[in-house]
Amino acid sequence: MDMAGSGVRLGRWARRGLRGALSGLAAMGLAFTNLPLLVVSIVALALAPVPFLGLALVPWTMTLVRKRTDLERRRASRTGVLVTRPYHPPPERAVAGAWPHFRWTVTDPATWRDLAWLGPGALVGFGLGAVGVLVPLYGVVGLTLTPLWIWLATGWYGYGATFAIDTWPGVLLCLPEGAAVLAGGLWLAPWLRRVDAYFARLFLAPTRAAELRLRVTHLTVTRADTVDAQAAELRRIERDLHDGVQARLASLSMTIGLADKLIDRNPAQAHKLLDEARESSHTALVELRHLIRGIHPPVLAERGLGGAVRALALSLPVPITIDVDLPGRPDTPVESAAYFAVAETLTNMIRHSRAHTGSVSIRHADGALRMVVTDDGGGGADPAAGTGLGGIERRLAAFDGTIALSSPPGGPTVITMEVPCALSLPRTMPSSGTD
Description:
Elements: H1 2-46, H2 53-78, H3 99-106, H4 109-152, H5 168-204, H6 208-262, H7 267-295, H8 298-314, E1 320-325, H9 332-353, E2 358-365, E3 368-375, H10 389-397, E4 402-406, E5 413-420
Parallel strand pairs: 1-2
Antiparallel strand pairs: 2-3, 3-5, 4-5
Helix pairs in contact: 1-2, 1-4, 1-5, 2-3, 2-5, 4-5, 6-7, 8-9, 9-10
Protein backbone atom coordinates (compact mmCIF):
# COMPACT_ATOMS: atom_id res chain seq x y z
CA MET A 1 0.00 0.00 0.00
CA ASP A 2 2.88 2.42 0.83
CA MET A 3 4.59 1.70 -2.47
CA ALA A 4 1.33 2.13 -4.35
CA GLY A 5 0.62 5.40 -2.54
CA SER A 6 4.14 6.62 -3.24
CA GLY A 7 3.70 5.77 -6.89
CA VAL A 8 0.44 7.71 -7.04
CA ARG A 9 2.03 10.74 -5.35
CA LEU A 10 5.04 10.54 -7.67
CA GLY A 11 2.74 10.39 -10.69
CA ARG A 12 0.79 13.43 -9.50
CA TRP A 13 4.00 15.31 -8.83
CA ALA A 14 5.29 14.49 -12.32
CA ARG A 15 2.00 15.55 -13.93
CA ARG A 16 2.04 18.79 -11.96
CA GLY A 17 5.59 19.50 -13.11
CA LEU A 18 4.74 18.63 -16.70
CA ARG A 19 1.72 20.93 -16.61
CA GLY A 20 3.98 23.68 -15.24
CA ALA A 21 6.46 23.18 -18.08
CA LEU A 22 3.69 23.18 -20.70
CA SER A 23 2.23 26.30 -19.09
CA GLY A 24 5.67 27.89 -19.39
CA LEU A 25 5.72 27.00 -23.07
CA ALA A 26 2.30 28.63 -23.46
CA ALA A 27 3.59 31.71 -21.63
CA MET A 28 6.46 31.98 -24.12
CA GLY A 29 4.01 31.87 -27.01
CA LEU A 30 1.60 34.36 -25.43
CA ALA A 31 4.46 36.77 -24.73
CA PHE A 32 4.78 37.34 -28.47
CA THR A 33 1.20 38.67 -28.57
CA ASN A 34 1.88 41.37 -25.96
CA LEU A 35 4.17 43.54 -28.05
CA PRO A 36 1.87 43.74 -31.12
CA LEU A 37 -1.01 44.62 -28.80
CA LEU A 38 1.11 47.35 -27.19
CA VAL A 39 2.08 48.81 -30.58
CA VAL A 40 -1.51 48.73 -31.85
CA SER A 41 -2.70 50.38 -28.62
CA ILE A 42 -0.16 53.19 -28.92
CA VAL A 43 -1.20 53.79 -32.52
CA ALA A 44 -4.89 53.79 -31.55
CA LEU A 45 -4.29 56.31 -28.76
CA ALA A 46 -2.29 58.50 -31.13
CA LEU A 47 -5.26 58.51 -33.51
CA ALA A 48 -7.77 59.20 -30.72
CA PRO A 49 -8.16 62.93 -31.65
CA VAL A 50 -9.25 61.95 -35.15
CA PRO A 51 -13.07 62.29 -35.29
CA PHE A 52 -15.02 59.03 -35.44
CA LEU A 53 -11.86 56.95 -36.01
CA GLY A 54 -10.53 57.38 -32.48
CA LEU A 55 -13.94 56.80 -30.90
CA ALA A 56 -14.15 53.40 -32.56
CA LEU A 57 -10.50 52.32 -32.70
CA VAL A 58 -9.50 52.91 -29.07
CA PRO A 59 -12.33 50.87 -27.44
CA TRP A 60 -11.87 48.08 -29.99
CA THR A 61 -8.14 47.91 -29.27
CA MET A 62 -8.63 48.02 -25.52
CA THR A 63 -11.16 45.19 -25.80
CA LEU A 64 -8.41 43.04 -27.33
CA VAL A 65 -6.05 44.08 -24.54
CA ARG A 66 -8.63 43.16 -21.91
CA LYS A 67 -9.16 39.76 -23.50
CA ARG A 68 -5.41 39.17 -23.26
CA THR A 69 -5.20 40.31 -19.63
CA ASP A 70 -8.31 38.29 -18.72
CA LEU A 71 -6.55 35.24 -20.14
CA GLU A 72 -3.55 36.03 -17.94
CA ARG A 73 -5.83 36.33 -14.90
CA ARG A 74 -7.33 32.92 -15.63
CA ARG A 75 -3.86 31.44 -16.04
CA ALA A 76 -2.85 32.95 -12.70
CA SER A 77 -5.93 31.49 -10.99
CA ARG A 78 -4.89 28.00 -12.12
CA THR A 79 -1.74 28.41 -10.02
CA GLY A 80 -3.76 29.46 -6.96
CA VAL A 81 -3.12 33.21 -7.37
CA LEU A 82 -6.45 35.03 -7.55
CA VAL A 83 -6.46 38.15 -9.74
CA THR A 84 -9.85 39.86 -9.75
CA ARG A 85 -11.11 41.81 -12.77
CA PRO A 86 -10.84 45.50 -11.80
CA TYR A 87 -12.85 47.21 -14.54
CA HIS A 88 -15.62 49.76 -14.06
CA PRO A 89 -19.05 48.44 -15.07
CA PRO A 90 -19.98 49.60 -18.59
CA PRO A 91 -22.45 52.47 -18.92
CA GLU A 92 -26.03 51.61 -19.70
CA ARG A 93 -26.88 51.37 -23.38
CA ALA A 94 -23.27 52.06 -24.35
CA VAL A 95 -22.81 51.75 -28.11
CA ALA A 96 -19.43 50.88 -29.58
CA GLY A 97 -18.00 53.94 -31.35
CA ALA A 98 -20.01 56.38 -29.25
CA TRP A 99 -18.58 58.90 -26.80
CA PRO A 100 -19.85 57.18 -23.57
CA HIS A 101 -18.17 53.94 -24.56
CA PHE A 102 -14.92 55.75 -25.40
CA ARG A 103 -14.96 57.71 -22.14
CA TRP A 104 -15.71 54.56 -20.12
CA THR A 105 -12.66 52.89 -21.66
CA VAL A 106 -10.07 55.64 -21.31
CA THR A 107 -11.12 56.89 -17.85
CA ASP A 108 -10.82 53.45 -16.25
CA PRO A 109 -7.46 53.24 -14.42
CA ALA A 110 -7.39 49.50 -15.07
CA THR A 111 -7.05 50.22 -18.81
CA TRP A 112 -3.72 51.96 -18.26
CA ARG A 113 -2.53 49.30 -15.83
CA ASP A 114 -3.24 46.69 -18.51
CA LEU A 115 -1.15 48.65 -21.00
CA ALA A 116 1.64 49.06 -18.46
CA TRP A 117 1.75 45.28 -17.98
CA LEU A 118 2.06 44.33 -21.65
CA GLY A 119 5.78 45.08 -21.98
CA PRO A 120 7.12 43.84 -18.62
CA GLY A 121 4.65 40.95 -18.66
CA ALA A 122 6.01 39.77 -21.99
CA LEU A 123 9.62 39.85 -20.76
CA VAL A 124 8.93 38.15 -17.43
CA GLY A 125 6.54 35.59 -18.92
CA PHE A 126 8.95 34.66 -21.71
CA GLY A 127 11.97 34.52 -19.40
CA LEU A 128 10.36 32.41 -16.68
CA GLY A 129 8.63 30.26 -19.28
CA ALA A 130 11.94 29.61 -21.04
CA VAL A 131 13.58 28.52 -17.80
CA GLY A 132 10.62 26.30 -16.95
CA VAL A 133 10.81 24.60 -20.36
CA LEU A 134 14.56 24.43 -21.01
CA VAL A 135 15.62 22.97 -17.65
CA PRO A 136 13.39 19.86 -17.91
CA LEU A 137 14.27 19.60 -21.60
CA TYR A 138 17.97 19.66 -20.70
CA GLY A 139 17.33 16.76 -18.33
CA VAL A 140 15.56 14.83 -21.10
CA VAL A 141 18.60 15.38 -23.31
CA GLY A 142 20.85 13.81 -20.69
CA LEU A 143 18.57 10.78 -20.44
CA THR A 144 17.99 10.17 -24.13
CA LEU A 145 19.81 12.19 -26.75
CA THR A 146 23.30 12.18 -25.23
CA PRO A 147 23.70 8.38 -25.21
CA LEU A 148 22.17 8.21 -28.69
CA TRP A 149 24.48 10.81 -30.15
CA ILE A 150 27.55 9.23 -28.55
CA TRP A 151 26.54 5.94 -30.11
CA LEU A 152 26.40 7.57 -33.54
CA ALA A 153 29.47 9.82 -33.28
CA THR A 154 32.12 10.21 -30.58
CA GLY A 155 33.62 13.43 -29.34
CA TRP A 156 30.36 15.31 -28.84
CA TYR A 157 30.57 17.93 -26.09
CA GLY A 158 27.52 17.25 -23.97
CA TYR A 159 26.63 17.90 -20.35
CA GLY A 160 28.82 20.54 -18.76
CA ALA A 161 30.65 21.21 -22.04
CA THR A 162 33.98 20.85 -20.19
CA PHE A 163 35.14 17.51 -21.50
CA ALA A 164 34.54 15.38 -24.55
CA ILE A 165 32.05 12.60 -23.89
CA ASP A 166 33.58 9.91 -26.03
CA THR A 167 33.47 6.89 -23.71
CA TRP A 168 30.63 4.82 -22.36
CA PRO A 169 31.51 5.61 -18.70
CA GLY A 170 31.11 9.28 -19.59
CA VAL A 171 27.79 8.51 -21.25
CA LEU A 172 26.58 6.65 -18.18
CA LEU A 173 27.42 9.67 -16.02
CA CYS A 174 25.00 11.69 -18.15
CA LEU A 175 22.09 9.49 -17.13
CA PRO A 176 21.92 10.29 -13.39
CA GLU A 177 22.78 13.92 -14.11
CA GLY A 178 19.96 14.09 -16.64
CA ALA A 179 17.53 12.48 -14.17
CA ALA A 180 18.51 15.00 -11.49
CA VAL A 181 18.14 17.94 -13.85
CA LEU A 182 14.77 16.65 -15.09
CA ALA A 183 13.48 16.19 -11.54
CA GLY A 184 14.70 19.63 -10.57
CA GLY A 185 13.11 21.17 -13.64
CA LEU A 186 9.75 19.50 -12.99
CA TRP A 187 9.87 20.71 -9.38
CA LEU A 188 10.82 24.24 -10.45
CA ALA A 189 8.34 24.74 -13.31
CA PRO A 190 5.14 25.14 -11.19
CA TRP A 191 6.89 27.59 -8.87
CA LEU A 192 8.03 29.70 -11.82
CA ARG A 193 4.40 29.83 -12.97
CA ARG A 194 3.39 31.15 -9.54
CA VAL A 195 6.12 33.81 -9.68
CA ASP A 196 4.82 34.88 -13.08
CA ALA A 197 1.28 34.97 -11.68
CA TYR A 198 2.32 37.13 -8.72
CA PHE A 199 4.10 39.51 -11.11
CA ALA A 200 0.95 39.78 -13.23
CA ARG A 201 -1.09 40.48 -10.10
CA LEU A 202 1.06 43.57 -9.38
CA PHE A 203 -0.38 45.16 -12.54
CA LEU A 204 -3.66 43.41 -13.25
CA ALA A 205 -5.26 43.20 -9.80
CA PRO A 206 -7.57 46.03 -8.67
CA THR A 207 -6.20 48.92 -6.62
CA ARG A 208 -7.55 49.63 -3.15
CA ALA A 209 -10.08 52.13 -4.52
CA ALA A 210 -11.13 49.66 -7.19
CA GLU A 211 -11.46 46.93 -4.57
CA LEU A 212 -13.81 49.13 -2.53
CA ARG A 213 -15.87 49.86 -5.63
CA LEU A 214 -15.99 46.17 -6.58
CA ARG A 215 -16.91 45.37 -2.99
CA VAL A 216 -19.93 47.69 -3.12
CA THR A 217 -20.99 46.24 -6.47
CA HIS A 218 -20.53 42.71 -5.17
CA LEU A 219 -22.62 43.38 -2.05
CA THR A 220 -25.37 44.93 -4.16
CA VAL A 221 -25.51 41.91 -6.44
CA THR A 222 -25.31 39.33 -3.64
CA ARG A 223 -28.03 41.11 -1.67
CA ALA A 224 -30.32 40.90 -4.69
CA ASP A 225 -29.35 37.24 -5.24
CA THR A 226 -30.00 36.46 -1.58
CA VAL A 227 -33.44 38.06 -1.68
CA ASP A 228 -34.29 36.12 -4.85
CA ALA A 229 -32.94 32.88 -3.39
CA GLN A 230 -34.94 33.32 -0.18
CA ALA A 231 -38.10 34.05 -2.16
CA ALA A 232 -37.51 30.95 -4.30
CA GLU A 233 -36.90 28.87 -1.18
CA LEU A 234 -40.12 30.06 0.40
CA ARG A 235 -42.02 29.22 -2.78
CA ARG A 236 -40.45 25.76 -2.80
CA ILE A 237 -41.42 25.13 0.82
CA GLU A 238 -44.96 26.38 0.17
CA ARG A 239 -45.25 24.18 -2.92
CA ASP A 240 -43.93 21.11 -1.10
CA LEU A 241 -46.33 21.68 1.79
CA HIS A 242 -49.30 22.29 -0.48
CA ASP A 243 -48.66 19.48 -2.97
CA GLY A 244 -47.24 16.99 -0.51
CA VAL A 245 -47.97 17.06 3.20
CA GLN A 246 -51.09 19.22 3.03
CA ALA A 247 -52.71 17.08 0.33
CA ARG A 248 -51.85 13.89 2.19
CA LEU A 249 -53.24 15.22 5.48
CA ALA A 250 -56.45 16.26 3.73
CA SER A 251 -56.75 12.75 2.30
CA LEU A 252 -56.04 11.33 5.76
CA SER A 253 -58.86 13.42 7.28
CA MET A 254 -61.31 12.21 4.64
CA THR A 255 -60.27 8.59 5.18
CA ILE A 256 -60.76 8.83 8.94
CA GLY A 257 -64.16 10.48 8.45
CA LEU A 258 -65.27 7.71 6.09
CA ALA A 259 -64.05 5.06 8.54
CA ASP A 260 -66.03 6.75 11.32
CA LYS A 261 -69.23 6.41 9.26
CA LEU A 262 -68.55 2.73 8.49
CA ILE A 263 -67.45 1.67 11.99
CA ASP A 264 -70.96 0.48 12.97
CA ARG A 265 -72.27 -0.87 9.62
CA ASN A 266 -69.06 -2.42 8.23
CA PRO A 267 -66.34 -2.77 10.88
CA ALA A 268 -64.04 -4.75 8.55
CA GLN A 269 -64.08 -2.01 5.92
CA ALA A 270 -63.61 0.63 8.59
CA HIS A 271 -60.51 -1.15 9.95
CA LYS A 272 -59.15 -1.35 6.41
CA LEU A 273 -59.61 2.39 5.99
CA LEU A 274 -57.92 3.02 9.34
CA ASP A 275 -54.95 0.92 8.20
CA GLU A 276 -54.74 3.08 5.07
CA ALA A 277 -54.94 6.18 7.25
CA ARG A 278 -52.08 4.87 9.43
CA GLU A 279 -49.89 4.29 6.36
CA SER A 280 -50.80 7.71 4.97
CA SER A 281 -49.90 9.39 8.26
CA HIS A 282 -46.54 7.61 8.27
CA THR A 283 -45.84 8.75 4.71
CA ALA A 284 -46.83 12.31 5.59
CA LEU A 285 -44.46 12.21 8.57
CA VAL A 286 -41.59 11.01 6.36
CA GLU A 287 -42.28 13.77 3.82
CA LEU A 288 -42.38 16.34 6.59
CA ARG A 289 -39.03 15.11 7.92
CA HIS A 290 -37.48 15.38 4.45
CA LEU A 291 -38.84 18.89 4.14
CA ILE A 292 -37.35 19.86 7.51
CA ARG A 293 -33.99 18.39 6.56
CA GLY A 294 -34.04 20.51 3.41
CA ILE A 295 -34.51 23.63 5.53
CA HIS A 296 -32.14 22.90 8.39
CA PRO A 297 -31.04 19.32 9.10
CA PRO A 298 -31.61 18.32 12.74
CA VAL A 299 -28.19 16.60 12.81
CA LEU A 300 -26.62 19.97 12.01
CA ALA A 301 -28.31 21.61 14.99
CA GLU A 302 -27.45 18.70 17.30
CA ARG A 303 -23.89 17.78 16.24
CA GLY A 304 -22.58 20.83 14.46
CA LEU A 305 -20.96 21.13 11.05
CA GLY A 306 -18.41 18.37 11.55
CA GLY A 307 -20.93 15.81 12.77
CA ALA A 308 -23.42 16.70 10.04
CA VAL A 309 -20.81 16.31 7.28
CA ARG A 310 -19.72 12.96 8.75
CA ALA A 311 -23.32 11.75 8.79
CA LEU A 312 -23.71 12.90 5.20
CA ALA A 313 -20.54 11.10 4.09
CA LEU A 314 -21.77 7.81 5.57
CA SER A 315 -24.80 7.89 3.25
CA LEU A 316 -22.73 8.27 0.06
CA PRO A 317 -21.70 5.34 -2.17
CA VAL A 318 -18.09 6.60 -2.41
CA PRO A 319 -15.73 6.45 0.61
CA ILE A 320 -15.14 9.98 1.89
CA THR A 321 -12.38 10.92 4.33
CA ILE A 322 -13.50 13.61 6.76
CA ASP A 323 -11.00 15.82 8.58
CA VAL A 324 -12.55 18.51 10.78
CA ASP A 325 -10.86 20.76 13.30
CA LEU A 326 -13.16 23.47 14.63
CA PRO A 327 -12.64 24.93 18.12
CA GLY A 328 -16.20 26.23 18.12
CA ARG A 329 -19.26 26.69 15.95
CA PRO A 330 -20.07 29.39 13.39
CA ASP A 331 -23.29 31.33 13.53
CA THR A 332 -26.30 29.27 12.51
CA PRO A 333 -26.83 30.88 9.06
CA VAL A 334 -23.14 30.47 8.16
CA GLU A 335 -23.08 26.92 9.46
CA SER A 336 -26.14 26.03 7.41
CA ALA A 337 -24.73 27.61 4.25
CA ALA A 338 -21.41 25.80 4.74
CA TYR A 339 -23.15 22.46 5.24
CA PHE A 340 -25.31 22.77 2.13
CA ALA A 341 -22.29 23.96 0.10
CA VAL A 342 -20.33 20.84 1.10
CA ALA A 343 -23.39 18.66 0.50
CA GLU A 344 -23.91 20.09 -2.99
CA THR A 345 -20.21 19.68 -3.79
CA LEU A 346 -20.26 16.02 -2.74
CA THR A 347 -23.44 15.46 -4.74
CA ASN A 348 -21.73 16.89 -7.82
CA MET A 349 -18.76 14.62 -7.19
CA ILE A 350 -20.97 11.53 -7.11
CA ARG A 351 -22.91 12.56 -10.22
CA HIS A 352 -20.20 13.90 -12.51
CA SER A 353 -16.63 13.09 -11.48
CA ARG A 354 -16.55 9.25 -11.63
CA ALA A 355 -14.44 9.41 -8.48
CA HIS A 356 -13.44 6.37 -6.42
CA THR A 357 -12.53 8.27 -3.25
CA GLY A 358 -12.94 11.76 -1.89
CA SER A 359 -12.05 13.87 1.12
CA VAL A 360 -13.42 16.85 3.01
CA SER A 361 -11.25 19.10 5.17
CA ILE A 362 -12.82 21.80 7.34
CA ARG A 363 -10.69 24.31 9.24
CA HIS A 364 -11.01 27.75 10.78
CA ALA A 365 -8.04 30.05 10.41
CA ASP A 366 -7.40 33.76 9.96
CA GLY A 367 -11.03 34.60 10.64
CA ALA A 368 -12.43 32.38 7.89
CA LEU A 369 -14.06 28.96 7.68
CA ARG A 370 -12.16 27.01 5.02
CA MET A 371 -13.64 23.90 3.40
CA VAL A 372 -11.67 21.84 0.88
CA VAL A 373 -13.38 19.03 -1.04
CA THR A 374 -11.13 16.78 -3.13
CA ASP A 375 -11.80 13.78 -5.33
CA ASP A 376 -9.74 11.51 -7.58
CA GLY A 377 -12.15 11.64 -10.51
CA GLY A 378 -11.59 12.57 -14.12
CA GLY A 379 -11.44 16.33 -13.56
CA GLY A 380 -12.53 18.86 -16.14
CA ALA A 381 -15.22 20.43 -13.94
CA ASP A 382 -16.60 23.63 -15.47
CA PRO A 383 -18.83 26.07 -13.56
CA ALA A 384 -20.41 27.12 -16.86
CA ALA A 385 -21.52 23.55 -17.62
CA GLY A 386 -24.39 23.62 -15.13
CA THR A 387 -22.76 21.36 -12.52
CA GLY A 388 -24.20 23.30 -9.55
CA LEU A 389 -21.03 25.26 -8.79
CA GLY A 390 -22.78 28.51 -9.66
CA GLY A 391 -25.46 27.82 -7.05
CA ILE A 392 -22.80 27.07 -4.44
CA GLU A 393 -21.03 30.33 -5.30
CA ARG A 394 -24.27 32.32 -4.92
CA ARG A 395 -25.03 30.62 -1.60
CA LEU A 396 -21.61 31.49 -0.18
CA ALA A 397 -21.57 34.98 -1.71
CA ALA A 398 -24.45 35.93 0.59
CA PHE A 399 -21.90 35.68 3.44
CA ASP A 400 -19.04 37.21 1.45
CA GLY A 401 -17.69 33.72 0.80
CA THR A 402 -15.61 32.60 -2.15
CA ILE A 403 -15.09 29.39 -4.09
CA ALA A 404 -11.97 28.36 -6.03
CA LEU A 405 -11.88 25.43 -8.43
CA SER A 406 -8.90 23.42 -9.64
CA SER A 407 -9.96 20.60 -11.95
CA PRO A 408 -7.46 19.84 -14.71
CA PRO A 409 -8.35 17.09 -17.21
CA GLY A 410 -7.46 13.77 -15.61
CA GLY A 411 -7.95 15.15 -12.10
CA PRO A 412 -7.75 15.56 -9.25
CA THR A 413 -10.53 18.07 -8.58
CA VAL A 414 -10.03 20.40 -5.62
CA ILE A 415 -12.78 22.82 -4.59
CA THR A 416 -11.83 25.34 -1.92
CA MET A 417 -14.58 27.33 -0.21
CA GLU A 418 -13.98 30.09 2.31
CA VAL A 419 -16.49 32.04 4.39
CA PRO A 420 -15.37 34.85 6.72
CA CYS A 421 -16.83 34.20 10.16
CA ALA A 422 -16.09 33.97 13.85
CA LEU A 423 -16.61 30.88 15.99
CA SER A 424 -18.65 30.82 19.15
CA LEU A 425 -20.20 28.22 21.46
CA PRO A 426 -17.28 26.08 22.64
CA ARG A 427 -17.18 22.63 21.19
CA THR A 428 -19.02 20.13 23.38
CA MET A 429 -18.04 16.97 21.52
CA PRO A 430 -14.94 15.86 19.64
CA SER A 431 -15.00 17.01 16.02
CA SER A 432 -11.37 16.68 14.99
CA GLY A 433 -9.76 13.64 13.53
CA THR A 434 -10.10 11.50 10.46
CA ASP A 435 -12.81 9.02 9.64
